[in-house]
Design a protein that fits this description.
Blueprint lengths: L4 H5 L2 H5 L2 H10 L10 H12 L11 H5 L10 H21 L2 H4 L34 H7 L8 H19 L26 H6 L16 H13 L1 H10 L3 H14 L23 H14 L9 H6 L1 H13 L6 H31 L7 H14 L9 H5 L8 H23 L31 H12 L3 H6 L3 H14 L6
Helix pairs in contact: 3-6, 4-6, 4-11, 9-20, 11-13, 11-14, 12-14, 13-14, 17-20, 18-20, 18-21, 21-23
């Protein structure tokens, strides 16, 4: 049998469950009443089954998947849904069985809800950099971003959009502004266009009265489905953490994340794996497993991960659980810890490379900073604990002559700058370790080093010069502290590097 050209172009995983099958299943899921809400929740539930202590079949959990009374519109829909879910489950099983380092981006489960926004939309709640020192005046953005052809009304509108989006991201910082108010179940306050649901409301008068809210945070439905499946097999998972206690902190982190991603507004109540308000008999497994995870993880070192990092590590956690329960690996917690460290480090390297390319493209030609200069400048600011923003010196970073040709270019660089600012803060929180590459700042190293022909510029000089330049901008109170003899002693290496001297 010859394969179609379309199937030949698909990846191995996509061939196990094709885009056409995905569309068909998504349409059938509209009939699920009390079952899985979207692919995120379905994937989370099936992922938990795929890595469960004992092999699991779809048949056993059919009602949990489609709901107790699915509203099928045709006689063949139950059979079609079962066949498609079986195929999707097969894809999930294949995905968790492969090392994420080998599989790459396809190892990441679907974390966006079915209500995610159109491509190019920007949600102020999607960026949470958790930075206490995040404060920007609107004039910073107004003065430092320019657009080519000021007479072009469309171009001006685009850049005003960028400014508004950046301000929204800044104002979304929970440490400086009040948390986003919770939904009041009024569709006028939701983030999507209410008109898209007008037809539904006309056909079903109770639709708007159901307190339904399909606006979910990234990963919320996936984590709900995953936790739901765990709670249905609570006894088996409790035995797992009794046999290998270090796994408890990973599972507990995911368990807690199912609550934390909901934000201040909490869940819409439509997800099945939310913590019960009262202990009913059917909640016994949920509460027992939650208590076991809490008790076991409290005796261990806390995972120093934010929600974004934890979600990025999902493929590693799933793969190691699969190895333990399907591949005969007796203990996987140490391997998981090392894989997580390497994955986070790879993410840091990737962000550096992306920002390095963007600065070379946009900032350096306009007289702005290289990545090494930016790292030195921001490292000084973050180490000093000053109440400054990454946008305070946009003109200095991007160059006085920078003219943005499009809003997308400006947005891409600004978002990457925000992420790198956050990364520097995390780096400074680490315990100094010469064997940990994540502790080191970014310093350009020559591709080839020949002792007979050393590089013309001293290695680390740009970092040191920018570090000292940032100190020159410190407020007077901070500069007085640097007059202390001990502080001068610690600044000596930076001064030596800035002068092109060796530290040896």
């Amino acid at each position: 049998m010859n394969e179609s050209p379309e199937s030949e172009s698909l990846s191995p995983l996509a061939q196990l469950f094709t885009p056409a099958e995905s569309e068909a299943l998504a349409e059938l899921m509209l009939s699920f009443d009390g079952g899985m809400l979207d692919f995120g929740e379905l994937d989370g539930f099936l992922s938990a089954l795929a890595v469960a202590p004992q092999p699991q079949s779809i048949e056993r959990w059919w009602n949990a998947l489609v709901g107790p009374e699915p509203e099928w519109e045709a006689e063949d829909e139950p059979a079609r849904a079962r066949a498609l879910i079986e195929r999707y489950y097969g894809m999930v099983q294949a995905r968790v069985a492969m090392s994420p380092f080998d599989l790459g981006p396809e190892s990441m489960p679907p974390l966006w809800s079915m209500t995610d926004e159109e491509e190019g939309d920007y949600d102020e709640e999607e960026i949470d950099y958790g930075d206490d020192e995040f404060d920007v005046d609107d004039s910073d953005l107004d003065d430092d971003i320019d657009v080519d052809d000021a007479d072009d009304d469309e171009g001006l509108a685009d850049i005003e959009t960028v400014r508004a989006q950046l301000r929204a991201a800044i104002e979304a910082e929970p440490d400086l502004d009040q948390a986003v108010e919770s939904d009041d179940a009024d569709f006028d306050d939701d983030e999507f266009d209410d008109e898209a649901f007008d037809d539904m409301a006309e056909e079903d008068p109770e639709f708007l009265a159901d307190d339904m809210d399909f606006s979910f945070a990234v990963g919320e439905t996936w984590l709900s489905g995953f936790r739901y499946a765990l709670s249905l097999q609570a006894d088996e998972w409790r035995k797992v953490i009794e046999a290998e206690p270090p796994l408890a902190r990973w599972l507990d982190a995911l368990w807690r994340a199912a609550d934390s991603v909901q934000g201040e507004g909490g869940s819409s109540g439509a997800l099945p794996a939310m913590a019960p308000e009262a202990a009913a008999p059917e909640d016994a497994g949920f509460l027992a497993l939650e208590a076991a995870l809490r008790q076991s993880s409290e005796r261990q070192e806390v995972l120093q991960l934010d929600e974004d990092q934890l979600l990025n590590l999902l493929p590693l956690i799933l793969h190691q659980l699969w190895r333990r329960h399907r591949d005969g690996a007796e203990s996987v917690s140490e391997t998981l810890q090392e894989d997580a460290r390497q994955a986070l480090l790879n993410g840091e390297y990737q962000l550096r490379d992306e920002l390095d390319d963007l600065l070379k493209l946009h900032a350096v030609p306009a007289g702005g900073m290289t990545l090494e200069q930016l790292d030195g400048f921001w490292t000084a600011q973050r180490a000093a604990g000053l109440e400054v923003s990454p946008f305070d010196q946009l003109e200095r970073i991007c160059g006085k002559d920078k003219v943005w040709e499009s809003a997308d270019e400006a947005r891409e660089l600004m978002q990457t700058l925000l992420a790198y600012w956050h990364q520097i803060g995390e780096r400074l929180l680490r315990q100094p370790n010469p064997d940990d590459p994540g502790c080191f700042p970014h310093i350009e190293m020559p591709a080839k080093f020949d002792e007979a022909h050393p590089p013309k510029a001293a290695i680390g000089r740009d970092f040191a010069l920018s570090f000292l330049a940032a100190i020159e901008d410190f407020p007077r109170s901070a500069k007085l502290l640097l007059m202390d003899p001990e502080a001068k002693h610690w600044l000596a290496p930076f001064e030596a590097l800035a002068e092109g001297k060796s530290l040896e």
